[in-house]
Design goal:
Layout: H1 2-27, H2 29-32, H3 34-52, E1 81-90, H4 96-106, E2 109-114, E3 119-123, H5 130-139, E4 143-154, E5 175-176, E6 179-180, H6 189-193, E7 203-208, E8 247-249, H7 267-276, E9 293-298, E10 305-307, H8 308-320, E11 325-328, E12 330-331, H9 337-348, E13 352-355, E14 370-372, E15 377-379
Parallel strand pairs: 7-9, 7-11, 8-9, 11-13
Antiparallel strand pairs: 1-3, 1-4, 2-3, 4-10, 4-12, 5-6, 14-15
Helix pairs in contact: 1-3, 3-4, 8-9
Length: 381
């Protein structure tokens, strides 16, 4: 027992000595190299965080939407996210050595990069929580922001099988589910169709649970990637995605963005049908735009949940591959700088965003969903 106690004491003393040595290297970096001094200082911070088990205050000037005025984590922002994972963006000018040095000091591994946002998906080591990692990354002057990989949820939607029930398109005062409608309280779809039924030049990216690609009302209007040769297992157009004929599945990371939940609700398929089901095609419904092309981008699984990192990648894909409109029928109540940057990228490239108003707390006629690049907020009301 005495030997064991002595060994523990020596180990503790050696750890203290190591931290003290690192601290002095940080104070006098010219003696051991600036990079080593910074990494040692970071080791001091990590040791403090891991010892006390709680996040520590950030340095003055480091901005984070997850910290309060005292630099402490605002836990209200951290409701649902992937454990052991972060999304991190470094400032322009950060060197590769500085980036890798920070990852190494934390024991973190970069698993993916979201181009062109320069956002990196990071796998954290066991024992380092998401909250602790956010604090440590935000304290580094080379980091622009660090956030959890949030989980988002589909917006609730009805499933209307026939056009006569689609009162939002054409309201004649018909009875739907026991409720009599108000005549002409709709988008005047038939009046618009007298002018135009839409154009195949309009490409609408449905970023959702996937699309039933062979659905008779949708198959003629599914976007196809003209630069890709089906089935040759090659990235023919050089966009970084192999055999992305109809879009991409960011949930399973393959070229088949099928709506696997179609027979149990099919959220993405329903959304796509409302947008662009073929009109006068012999099916049961007509979409708003009879001829628009649907780019199927799946990032949500059968559980109705997806990740912000995958959603951002899907947005970038849509913009880079010619989408003119992007539809998001899902919601998140937390500000996400990664999603903000992705939306900004689309806006810069003149891509229109359409987002769900949300149906959790009706009525919401006067306060719908917003993702204002000014207010920096994406919410469902």
């Amino acid at each position: 027992m005495e030997i064991a106690s002595e060994n523990k004491r020596r180990f503790k003393d050696s750890r203290v000595a190591e931290v003290v040595t690192c601290f002095f290297r940080f104070l006098f970096p010219e003696r051991r190299g600036v990079m080593k001094g910074k990494l040692c200082a970071l080791w001091v911070l990590i040791s403090i965080v891991m010892f006390f088990g709680t996040p520590i205050s950030r340095v003055e000037g480091a901005q984070s939407p997850w910290t309060d005025d005292q630099g402490q984590i605002n836990r209200g922002f951290l409701d649902e996210y992937v454990p052991g994972e972060l999304l991190v963006k470094f400032k322009e000018g950060a060197s590769r050595a500085e980036v890798q040095g920070l990852h190494s000091a934390l024991g973190a591994i970069e698993t993916k990069r979201i181009e062109p946002l320069e956002v990196r998906r990071i796998k954290l080591p066991l024992g380092l929580s998401v909250e602790q990692a956010i604090t440590l990354y935000q304290m580094d002057p080379n980091v622009e922001y660090a956030e959890p990989n949030y989980i988002v949820h589909l917006a609730a939607m009805p499933t209307d099988p026939d056009f006569s029930l689609l009162w939002g398109l054409h309201n004649t005062g018909q009875n739907v589910n026991g409720v009599t409608g108000t005549p002409d309280a709709d988008i005047d779809a038939p009046e618009a169709w007298d002018i135009t039924t839409g154009s195949s030049d309009v490409i609408i990216a449905v970023i959702d649970s996937g699309v039933a690609l062979n659905h008779p009302d949708l198959a003629p209007n599914i976007w196809t990637n003209a630069g890709e040769i089906p089935g040759n297992v090659d990235d023919d157009d050089g966009n970084g995605y192999v055999d992305d004929i109809y879009g991409w599945d960011f949930y399973d990371d393959d070229g088949n963005p099928e709506d696997y939940n179609y027979y149990n609700g099919g959220h993405g398929t329903h959304v796509a049908g409302t947008i662009a089901a073929l009109g006068n095609g012999g099916g049961r419904i007509a979409g708003v735009n009879w001829n628009a092309k649907i780019m199927a981008l799946r990032f949500i699984g059968s559980s109705g949940e997806g990740l912000i990192g995958d959603a951002a990648e899907a947005i970038i894909y849509a913009v880079d591959n010619g989408a003119t409109i992007i539809n998001l029928s899902w919601g998140i109540y937390t500000y996400s700088p990664v999603l903000y940057d992705a939306v900004s990228y689309a806006s810069t490239n003149n891509v229109l965003f359409v987002a769900a108003a949300g149906s959790e707390t009706p009525p919401n006629d006067n306060d719908g969903a917003t993702y204002s690049l000014l207010s920096q907020q994406f919410r469902s009301s």
